[in-house]
């Protein structure tokens, strides 16, 4: 039988797996809130595409937990593919440049494509992806993002389905990383430096 999750406020005082001594985490969105919202998002998507086979395109690597949960909630006919692009240098600053690292395995022509992203930040990655995918003539092209940092937007893009609008704080967990750590946290957390230290924010 699963154990009851700890109180998030208490949990944030403990060291999490992969956590360095100088870093602390504050839960921003608990796993139970994420689970409930992902279920609602799946219902919204299925209301729009009730009988359509949905081809989910996950943007590696941050989207994988969201994609896995969303796919299970969607039901019906669902297929997956993954693309990898890079828009960030090491650490926390965006270079603004988007590079293809791994393309899709199969054609999206004629398919109902749902791009699945963990976070929409400047929007430069999504703009690049939408331009690329539109040229490939999908039947439908929609976007689902779990987190939207609206105030960071540079590119004129928006998601069709959004989980949570969040402030401009550096978040990790539920797929999101800080130098490849914390992706396995069930909650979305804000990283803080030191006991009374500054919250890490984007440049
Ligand atoms: C993150 C996220 C998006 C992108 C959003 O990926 O998954 O793909 O940044 O940022 P933007 O809106 O400013 O373009 P990241 O490059 O951190 O890779 P990861 O998913 O492998 O962690």
Percent in helix: 10-25%
Structural class comes to alpha/beta
Distance between the termini: 44 Å
Biggest sheet: strand arrangement: 4-3-2-5-6-7
Beta fraction of the residues?
25-35%
Please report the total strand number as a whole number: 9
Polypeptide structure, described:
The protein has helices at residues 8-11, 31-48, 64-74, 124-134, and strands at 23-29, 54-60, 78-88, 94-102, 112-120, 140-148, 161-165, 171-172, 188-193. The protein is of the alpha/beta class and 203 residues long. A six-stranded mixed sheet has the order 4-3-2-5-6-7, sandwiched between helices. A three-stranded antiparallel sheet has the order 1-9-8. α2 crosses α3 (64-74). The protein is globular, with a radius of gyration of 17 Å. Bound molecules: 1-O-pyrophosphono-5-O-phosphono-alpha-D-ribofuranose. The site of 1-O-pyrophosphono-5-O-phosphono-alpha-D-ribofuranose (PRP) has 19 residues, from β2, β3, β5 and α4. Residues 59-62, 86-88, 94, 117-126, 177 line the site of 1-O-pyrophosphono-5-O-phosphono-alpha-D-ribofuranose (PRP).
């Amino acid at each position: 039988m699963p154990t009851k999750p700890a109180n998030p406020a208490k949990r944030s005082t403990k060291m999490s797996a992969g956590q360095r001594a100088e870093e602390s985490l504050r839960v921003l969105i608990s796993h139970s809130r994420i689970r409930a919202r992902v279920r609602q998002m799946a219902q919204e998507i299925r209301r729009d595409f009730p009988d359509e086979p949905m081809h989910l395109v996950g943007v590696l690597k941050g989207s994988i937990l969201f994609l896995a949960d969303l796919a299970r909630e969607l039901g019906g006919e669902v297929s997956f593919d993954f693309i990898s692009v890079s828009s960030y240098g090491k650490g926390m600053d965006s270079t603004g440049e988007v590079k293809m690292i791994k393309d899709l395995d199969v054609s999206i022509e004629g398919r109902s494509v749902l791009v699945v992203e963990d976070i929409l930040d400047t929007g430069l990655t999504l703009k690049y992806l939408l331009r690329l995918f539109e040229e490939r003539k999908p039947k439908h092209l929609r976007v689902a993002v779990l987190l939207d940092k609206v105030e960071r937007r540079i590119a004129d893009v928006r998601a069709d389905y959004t989980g949570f609008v969040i402030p401009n704080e550096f978040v990790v967990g539920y797929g999101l990383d800080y130098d490849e750590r914390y992706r396995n946290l069930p909650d979305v957390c804000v990283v803080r430096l030191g006991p009374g230290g500054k919250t890490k924010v984007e440049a």
